[in-house]
Amino acid sequence: MPVLTQISSRVLNESDTPTAKAIASTIGRMITAGELPVDTKLPTVRQLSRSLAVSPTTVSEAWQGLSAVGAIETRGRNGTYVRVPSGRGSPRRYRRVTAGSSHLAIDLSTGTPDPDLLPDLGPHIARVGRNSFTSSYLDSPVLPELEELLLASWPFEPESLTVVDGAMDALDRVARVVLRLGDRVIVEHPCFPPLLDLLEQLGCEIIGIDMDENGMVPDGLRTALEQRPTAVFLQPRAQNPTGIAINESRAKHLSEILEPSSALVIEDDHANDISAAPLVSLGSWLPHRTVHIRSHSKSHGPDLRLAAVGGLGD
Length: 314
Prior knowledge:
This protein is of the alpha/beta class. The protein has helices at 3-14, 20-32, 45-52, 56-68, 92-98, 122-130, 144-153, 167-178, 193-201, 218-224, 248-258, 297-300, and strands spanning 41-42, 72-74, 80-82, 160-164, 184-189, 205-212, 215-216, 231-234, 264-269, 290-295, 307-311. Helix 1 (3-14) packs across helix 2.
């Protein structure tokens, strides 16, 4: 089947009135699935716009979006070709959130704690510096004493547990393992701006779900699952920026809606125990479909950058 026909059929099958975003997402999924291999020559903007009955501007915007994540490249007069996606550059929203914060009396945008309220880690860090806790690269990534403490309060029994460089590092690592170009991903609306930056870097199609005082609205989640998303990202308490905490009734309801799907649940407990709200994890109902991230950066200091990740072993 000619590439033009292949792309047009798929786009029109997934969207009655194709937008630039819909075109880019569909082609992204085709690239990820191997239906459009690397070095495939794509139709021209005018050819695809005529086939889809949209303006050339719409297709051009789709091409720009795919170029931004490195999924396609223009080779001069030879045309536009599929390439291995490389991802976007800088985290734009995060830069806008933090830009110019020095003039504020109190900056709450990043959730950074007052240093005077943090524990003194000096003696403990000095002890770490004097000791060798590992003897081989094959040793467990988590010290036995730390693993015991984490498991004692983990909301469900994880198949695997590790420690990384803060919650954003954890989100980045998990996302890059489970997500591919064009994947649909559910997030809370509004949500933490750097998460949107990360998902856009990966070329994902973002589906925002409105929230009420108890978290994601169930009907919104149910409708979004019809689009077969790969993952659902949420913050179970102290949600940034709303401060909302999921209660047990809502978490159970969301879990029941998610249960028939294949979407992976990725929880970011960024506030951990400094939150006044108790932790309610969807992993209590979906333990084999939940990756739980627990940050200790706010409780022990952002310079420590420590977070635990537990969930599926693979």
